[in-house]
Amino acid sequence: MSTPNPGPGNGIGCLYGVGVGPGDPELLTLKALRIIQQAPVICSPQAEASGDSYALEIVREFLDPAKQETMRVTFPTDDAEGAAGVWRQAAQDIAQRLLKGQDVAFITEGDPMLYSTFAYILQGIATSHPEIPVEVVPGVSSVMAAAASAAVPLVTHGQRLAILPAVYGIDDLREAIANYDTIVLMKVNRTLLSALANLETLGLAGKGIYVRRASTTGERVVRQLTEEDLDYFSLLIIRK
Amino acid sequence: MSTPNPGPGNGIGCLYGVGVGPGDPELLTLKALRIIQQAPVICSPQAEASGDSYALEIVREFLDPAKQETMRVTFPTDDAEGAAGVWRQAAQDIAQRLLKGQDVAFITEGDPMLYSTFAYILQGIATSHPEIPVEVVPGVSSVMAAAASAAVPLVTHGQRLAILPAVYGIDDLREAIANYDTIVLMKVNRTLLSALANLETLGLAGKGIYVRRASTTGERVVRQLTEEDLDYFSLLIIRK
Fold first, then answer.
1. What is the ipTM of this complex?
2. Interface of B with A in 85-144 (CB under 8 A)
3. pTM of the full predicted structure?
């Protein structure tokens, strides 16, 4: 509800960071749907390597190309050098539309505040144009969607949850497992196989649940993983 | 999309665990809305102490009391002794409707897999009636909603997130702060004040953002907390 710089009517558009959920279009919120249907400009991030925008695929059925412009922001896949410049430029391009009075909906799969590229746009706009109003619309995260698909609670009363990105060394896992009831490993890849070997070392064999593309037609929930199950849109839930 | 025991048509209703989001009714998903409007029985948890069902308040405008039955499940506020029996009985009451062929939507604020009472119902039904189909509909968690309200990203690429319940000893915080980029303390209360004192001890003064009732008319985002801001539906985000 609150915005850092609320205030329509000053001739400046509002930047919306809109979480469009984990993949199933029916997991959009009513608010996300309203905003992406009203915004004249839809901005969607896409990985340089693939050329696809997963967020855009999720909402495509709700957009009207005759009335809405789609801006694409291409970002380096590995988020390494060069990425900062890409995001600064993207923020400037988006700011141009906003300063002309157009609202811009920056769509992002899952939630805009959890491992989303929207964080970089938000920072860029806040730094260069603090007068631009921003509103963040939270979405269903892939973490919750994966737990729903697996029908496995992440945490209950009094328990602790750790969410780790793609760093699966045995020391990281050992620390997390010592202190947390549930660990979610995000965006697993080939290093996952060594993580699974680590689970056995740590006495947690069989405690991992791998969920690929939760809520989509490509969904798979498996306890015994093979290499062909690996997929960027996947995660591993470890319940002690 | 997947269900542990899929299969309508066997004369048994489906148990839906439906996340209804953090408070703003517009943060329901399209799927949650469809299911709570179709289900003949809505089951809502309510704390013994308050007598209110927050989840029910969120969705009330979407229900039709003439066509839908509302079942309330009252649970002990402190989740201590006696709670297990309450949940077992509630699961039996719900199972009765399901075995008669009625779908039941168990609604829960936020997400059903993150600190939700639905976990107890799920376990109870899975144990006593494994033949009953269950589908979990993920929702927007208060964690994401709070970050959205504060316009503060929780984590970006490569960062780690810890979510801790109401245990705020300095040792807990020290461990979390040593190993994680962002720590979310859930359902803060009077012990929060000592947590804030701990933040100063740990050199993190001013790094905490307190968000009360994110996405509702009672929302407040503050960096300097006073005792009257304290509220059960609130959390603290600590960004290093």
1. 0.91
2. 111-116, 118-120, 122, 126, 134, 136-141, 144
3. 0.91
